[in-house]
Amino acid sequence: MRLLLVEDDVMVASGIKLGLADAGYAVDWVGSGERAQEVLARESFDIGVIDIGLPGIDGLELTRLLRRPEMANPAMPVLILTARDALQDRVQGLDLGADDYMVKPFELPELLARLRALLRRSQAATTAVLSFGPLELDSANRRASIVGTEGAAATAIELGPREWTVLEYLLIHAPKPVSKDKLLQALTGWDKEITPNAVEVYVSRLRSKLEPHGIALRSIRGFGYRLELVEATAR
């Protein structure tokens, strides 16, 4: 998942970015509302975390601006962070387009849980468990498994951090295809530490783990990849 963090305090931003990166998010950070507005006009993110107390354009105004139709993703889920605890601030933030609100200081596990809830809501999902055929991905507990049939025990699938990111992104959008560029952004954001060809490596690893269980990861020439059930495609 690609996340935009808008926070002017460098130490706070560094801590949040580290925690979110450890949880599998590709985090891009900007320190002002003006910079965030520029970025959001041309780049799409899966979710945003915005501090209210920004210099210049504050977080409330930024939230209002990013909902404009000319923005790259005006429907992006937004969680507001702030040291303010006044009811009016919370009401104003939600009325301007924020989807959730957290008051500083906060605990990282709660932030992660709220982000998962916002992502589920944006994808019309009702549970932290993503499923496709016999495959289940428990995003809250970071467990992947193949559900057994007729009372058989589930089979765990071991995934590396980037394999997890690719599979989670494919599952969220299944059965629709996902472009290779989107997968690369979900893996790295602005930190281009891997090449586009590396996406093919993670896809290949996933294929070897999923195909024995009847799940295919199909290549779409010139675009990207899509999850399919082998039984369904055989018919």
UniProtKB/TrEMBL annotation:
<feature type="domain" description="OmpR/PhoB-type">
    <location>
        <begin position="127"/>
        <end position="229"/>
    </location>
</feature>
<keyword id="KW-0238">DNA-binding</keyword>
<dbReference type="Pfam" id="PF00072">
    <property type="entry name" value="Response_reg"/>
</dbReference>
<dbReference type="InterPro" id="IPR001867">
    <property type="entry name" value="OmpR/PhoB-type_DNA-bd"/>
</dbReference>
<dbReference type="GO" id="GO:0000156">
    <property type="term" value="F:phosphorelay response regulator activity"/>
</dbReference>
<feature type="DNA-binding region" description="OmpR/PhoB-type">
    <location>
        <begin position="127"/>
        <end position="229"/>
    </location>
</feature>
<feature type="domain" description="Response regulatory">
    <location>
        <begin position="2"/>
        <end position="119"/>
    </location>
</feature>
<dbReference type="InterPro" id="IPR036388">
    <property type="entry name" value="WH-like_DNA-bd_sf"/>
</dbReference>
<keyword id="KW-0804">Transcription</keyword>
<dbReference type="GO" id="GO:0032993">
    <property type="term" value="C:protein-DNA complex"/>
</dbReference>
<keyword id="KW-0597">Phosphoprotein</keyword>
<dbReference type="GO" id="GO:0005829">
    <property type="term" value="C:cytosol"/>
</dbReference>
<dbReference type="InterPro" id="IPR011006">
    <property type="entry name" value="CheY-like_superfamily"/>
</dbReference>
<dbReference type="Pfam" id="PF00486">
    <property type="entry name" value="Trans_reg_C"/>
</dbReference>
<dbReference type="GO" id="GO:0006355">
    <property type="term" value="P:regulation of DNA-templated transcription"/>
</dbReference>
<dbReference type="GO" id="GO:0000976">
    <property type="term" value="F:transcription cis-regulatory region binding"/>
</dbReference>
<keyword id="KW-0805">Transcription regulation</keyword>
<dbReference type="InterPro" id="IPR039420">
    <property type="entry name" value="WalR-like"/>
</dbReference>
<dbReference type="InterPro" id="IPR001789">
    <property type="entry name" value="Sig_transdc_resp-reg_receiver"/>
</dbReference>
<protein>
    <submittedName>
        <fullName>DNA-binding response regulator</fullName>
    </submittedName>
</protein>
<dbReference type="InterPro" id="IPR016032">
    <property type="entry name" value="Sig_transdc_resp-reg_C-effctor"/>
</dbReference>
<feature type="modified residue" description="4-aspartylphosphate">
    <location>
        <position position="51"/>
    </location>
</feature>
